[in-house]
């Protein structure tokens, strides 16, 4: 009778969905371990979580902002894209619009675009009769434009500013302005560029600035000032904005006038 009662009790427990007491400890332990593993899997790379939550931005922008310390996780700055974060973490991006949007505010005032971001201009501006779009053209070999320009803005990569200046001068008016972004990572000697393509030495920054400013002035320009760009390069490099005014021929010395 006692065995039958025990079996009956066992079946009754199973019918109402309760595990027999003799088997529950090990099964409960396994269930707890499974739950912990599931929670652990919820942590992912910071850049992946950002891409999922901020789908309007590309991976390049996201990783650049993380590197610059503009991404906060639960109120704290995290500057490594591979940092594991929880799906429940609060992520904030303290960055402004993508950096390639800034030159457009200047380009709207010029007659022709000397940069390489024209494809980002609104279509109604791109097709405007006063805008000439020249694509698939190496600036070094640009010979002419529909008309001479009052203002040139340069944002170059993988080439020195001084290499394009001969072509730039040919399309500028005598009394005109040049605004250029100076990128030490593309102007310094290879031995001066550190790991990840970053130039960290302030002395190298100064050397590059002095050489570029002096070089541009040799083409008949006067430097009006130079500042550190408030926006760093994609890898976190410091970049600089320099403004030059082209000196009218009558103000040049005879030797300088011949060179222009």
Automatic annotation (TrEMBL):
Q: Which CDD domains does the record associate with it?
A: S4
Pfam name, any one: S4
Keywords for this entry? RNA-binding
Database matches in InterPro entries: RNA_MeTrfase_FtsJ_dom, S4_RNA-bd, S4_RNA-bd_sf, SAM-dependent_MTases_sf, TlyA
Would the keyword rRNA-binding be found if you checked this record's keyword annotation? no
Q: Name one GO molecular function term.
A: RNA binding
Q: Which GO terms describe its biological process?
A: methylation
**Superkingdom classification of source:** Eukaryota
SMART domains in the record: S4 (SM00363)
UniProt cross-references to Gene3D superfamilies, sorted A to Z: RNA-binding S4 domain, Vaccinia Virus protein VP39
Sequence ranges assigned to domain RNA-binding S4 in this UniProt record: 44-103
Give the similarity note. Belongs to the TlyA family.
The record's listing under PANTHER family reads: BACTERIAL HEMOLYSIN-LIKE PROTEIN
The protein here is known as: RNA-binding S4 domain-containing protein
């Amino acid at each position: 009778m006692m065995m039958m009662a025990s079996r009956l009790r066992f079946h009754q427990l199973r019918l109402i969905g309760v595990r027999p007491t003799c088997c529950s400890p090990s099964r409960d332990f396994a269930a707890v371990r499974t739950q912990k593993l599931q929670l652990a899997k919820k942590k992912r790379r910071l850049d992946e979580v950002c891409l999922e939550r901020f789908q309007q931005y590309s991976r390049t922008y996201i990783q650049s902002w993380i590197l610059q310390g503009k991404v906060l996780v639960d109120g704290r700055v995290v500057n490594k894209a591979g940092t594991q974060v929880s799906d429940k973490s609060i992520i904030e991006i303290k960055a402004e619009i993508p950096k390639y949007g800034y030159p457009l505010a200047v380009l709207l005032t010029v007659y022709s675009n000397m940069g390489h971001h024209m494809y980002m201009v609104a279509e109604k501006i791109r097709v405007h009769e006063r805008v000439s779009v020249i694509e698939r053209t190496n600036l070094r070999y640009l010979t002419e434009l529909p008309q001479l320009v009052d203002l040139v803005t340069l944002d170059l990569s993988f080439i020195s500013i001084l290499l394009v200046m001969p072509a730039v001068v040919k399309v500028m008016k005598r009394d005109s302005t040049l605004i250029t972004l100076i990128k030490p990572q593309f102007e310094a000697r290879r031995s001066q560029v550190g790991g990840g393509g970053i130039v960290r030495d302030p002395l190298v920054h100064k050397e590059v600035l002095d050489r570029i400013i002096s070089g541009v002035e040799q083409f008949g320009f006067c430097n009006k000032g130079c500042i550190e760009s408030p926006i760093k390069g994609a890898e976190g490099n410091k970049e600089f904005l320099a403004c030059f005014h082209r000196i009218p021929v009558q103000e040049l010395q005879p030797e300088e006038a011949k060179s222009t």
